[in-house]
Write a structure and sequence with these properties.
Blueprint: H1 2-17, H2 25-39, H3 57-78, H4 85-114
Helix pairs in contact: 3-4
Length: about 120
């Protein structure tokens, strides 16, 4: 939980340093188009998850893995837009932490597979 709060605080501070005004409308349109192409229909949100359909802890863990993977993809997409080394280093630290979360979640799923609670690939 602390890491999530730390990430949110960091992104809040980062937002304050960004000038939201794009000086060139063509660049703004190109940026929006590029972002739309890259993201496609990806939502990066748990809002679309139907939690009423989740019957086992393992299913919830698999959903959490998917969400963590989405966050890593999103953070990696931010890399080319960051020129400041301190900011980039912090972002890399977040990516490392999120990747560690994924590894830990996979261990929990693997534990359930070993106990026969689910089958591999479920």
């Amino acid at each position: 939980m602390f890491l999530m709060v730390e990430h949110a605080a960091w992104f809040g501070q980062l937002k304050k340093t960004i000038d939201p005004q794009v000086k060139d409308p063509a660049v703004e349109a190109m940026g929006k188009s590029l972002l739309s192409d890259v993201l496609g229909k990806q939502s990066f949100s748990l809002k679309e998850a139907d939690f009423s359909e989740i019957n086992r802890l393992t299913e919830l863990l698999l959903l959490a893995i998917e969400f963590e993977n989405d966050k890593v993809i999103f953070y990696k997409m931010l890399r080319p837009f960051i020129a400041d080394n301190e900011t980039l280093n912090f972002l890399e630290n977040i990516i490392t932490q999120e990747s560690h979360h994924i590894e830990e979640l996979h261990k929990l799923v693997d534990r359930d597979v070993a106990k026969g609670k689910i089958t591999s690939g479920t």
